[in-house]
Amino acid sequence: MKKNIKIISILIILIISLFGCDSTKTNTEVYKGNKLNIAVVGKIPKINEDDGTIDLKKIALKDINRIHLKSYDAVIISKNYLSEAANRKYEDTYLNGSIPFFFVESKASILPFIDNTLTYEEYADRVNNNEDYIDGLLGTGNGQYQTWQYSYRVKNNKFDRTNVKSIYTQVFKAIEQIKIQRTN
Fold it and tell me: Helix H segments across 52-164?
């Protein structure tokens, strides 16, 4: 009798544990580093972090050549501005701006922002990058640069494009590392 009660108790605990496990949980990781000031061209993204940690300020694309880049830790350019952002007049800012630029949903990766021989659309047709949600670029001078790629999560062998907040958290961590390296 006592043995049966033990077995039933163990089974109940296992069943409750299984109901507590949800394989569809989303990543709710949150950036907890130093405060970051980020300029955003386009729509302000929805993120896991609060305003006390991440300060997102909307700016016009035409202003990225004129903004005081030391006032910001990075610039995020949203999808609707990518074609215009690939204009030759911004290339020098991307390659020599001393802060990283992140391009949201660029089908052309960073290519049209560092090489203006083709338009954004021409590069997008050739590259057709649909795996990465955000591509980053930090010019290091003399035409050199560092890049980042942040891909969509894969869920059931398919790209999960529904929850991108965790991708922004990864971007914020990279921005903090760049900021630390810049100050050392």
Answer: 82-85, 88-96, 111-114, 120-127
Q: What's the mean per-residue pLDDT of the chain?
A: 85
Is residue 175 within 8 A of residue 34, CB to CB? The reply is: no
Domain boundaries, the chain: 35-183
- 54 burial class (0-12, 13-18, 19+ CB within 10 angstroms)? buried
Tell me the two tokens of residue 168: 């922004």
Per-residue burial over 74-91, b if 16 or more Cβ lie within 10 Å, else e, is: bbbbbeebbeebbeeebb
Whether this prediction's pTM lies above 0.85 is answered by no
Q: Which amino acid belongs to residue 31?
A: Y
- pLDDT interval class at 27 (50, 70, 90): low
Per-residue pLDDT reduced to its tens digit, 4-14: 444 444 434 43
Cα 175 from Cα 50, distance rounded (Å): 16
Q: Check: CB of residue 119 under 8 Å from CB of residue 92.
A: no
Q: Residue 32 phi/psi, 5° resolution?
A: -125, 20
- Classify burial at 34, counting beta carbons within 10 Å of its beta carbon; exposed 0-12, middle 13-18, buried 19 or more: exposed
Q: What is the pLDDT of residues 66-88, one digit of tens each?
A: 877 678 999 999 999 999 999 99
